[in-house]
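Quick entry, no commentary yet.
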Amino acid sequence: MTTTSGRKPPPEFISIQMTEAAKIGAADANTMSGPLVPVSGGMGRWWTNVCGKSESTLHVVLRIFCLLSSMAALSFMVTAEQSATLSIFGFKLPVYSKWTYSDSFEYLVGISAAVAAHSLLQMMLTMRKLLKKSPVIPSRNHGWLIFTGDQAFAYAMMSAASAAAGVTNLNRAGIRHSSLPDFCKPLRSFCDHAAASITFAFFTCFLLAASAVADVLWLSRY
């Protein structure tokens, strides 16, 4: 680099020009790309936090409703007990019915208790992680484990509710091609408790299926 007079500028002048050029380049870089990085990162973090909070809230709500529904199914069934008098061919016969007399009802009670325990455990773990401000589902392996549990319990609850519904329908309609009466007429309270338990069991199955779908959505994004 030379001046108009043909003389070389002193080293101090060259260093000053280089310093000014570096400052201009740094300012241009900050103007073109610097502000975009934190904005993009901030929006990404904000969207991730919003999605994470929504998923955490959804998990807690589903667990609470699933716990309440399974407990209702369990409570209605274990209180299904009644004694009455049944009239057959003009004879008065004392009858007594209890949920333990049916294997299908016992199966429903057992599955409802297992689902209630599962929902309570998952709800406590989720709330504990929320208090610690840590991810509700920390890894994909953990997500697959929760999904498998929710799906297995949903199928089990569906099976138990269907089996119990068949017995209740038989009690209400009697046995076709026979003279046996409708046992739910004298045992109305017993049958109503069983029907309420089965209704809550099907609703619990729906909640477990919704929880499994939420698990799948989480696994598809991460």
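second:
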Amino acid sequence: MENKNSVGTLEENKENLLEVHDLWVEYRTSRGAVKAVNGLNLNIAMGETLGLVGETGAGKSTTAFGIMRILPDPPAKITGGEILYKGRDLLKLSAKEMRDVRGEEISMIFQDPMTSLDPVKTVGNQIQEMIELHTDISSKEAWTRAEDMLEVVGIKRERANDYPHQFSGGMKQRVVIAMALSCNPKLLIADEPTTALDVTIQAQVLELMKKLKAEYRMSMIMITHDLGVVAEVCDKVAVLYAGNIVEYGAMEDVFDDPRHPYTRALFDATPTLDGEKHKLNIIKGFSPDPIHLPEGCAFHPRCKEVCDKCSAVMPEMVEVAPGHLVRCVHAVPCGAEKTEEVAE
């Protein structure tokens, strides 16, 4: 299952905080193996925000859970690859070593704050427990820091004694962010952090996350299906389809010049407030069955530009512009360089 089409080979001049090499994840079911992530490669540089974009079932959350090593086993199984954080392969760490990494080095914000908060404990106690788990400070000092973290996310410290049900949805998400940042992690993974919020609160939470990312000098992976969120907070974009990256590059490059038919289809299906009103284009067909993925390019049964070659071979990543990589036989004219050739 070797896959040499690494997203990161063009960025060797940057110091990478996280490198994912040839990651394969599947879920064992009675129907067969669900191929959720298929040879995925990505890099996160220090201080960079990467957006993972794609439809439901594309493998975004599975990739994040794999990095955190919180996949349910069984049925999930990482069957190949490396996840290097500061040069250490997280897949080779013991359960205890990985617990030390979570929270202290890498934190995660989940899309529904109610699944992250204990309804029978005060929010202050929950943040305090996180701090005590990863530091050697006293309970009193941990409580004071918990109150400080609430103020960092715009919640009065007096509310540390309140319970989750006493907060609105947006305020709960702020509590979750405070908890995730309480040990000053270097990498924050945000899995659809604004999905359950209304538009106004979404904007407030995103602005808060941008501010705190700069203040804490973190790297961030933003998992979303909302291209507007990507435009708001991300430096780089990785578009996922059927468990693999089909397009990767700087946010401006991918948004201004999308080269993969799937990426273009996502933009065509996005409503805008500008210009003439027209019926939204939809992506025909359905996401492929991950137990029986199509041969060749997984997108070819839904693609408007399909040709015989698309169903015969899996396209390799090619560089269409500096740092802009695409997995499509139509992405560039003949003679374009492959990423592994560029790396040489």
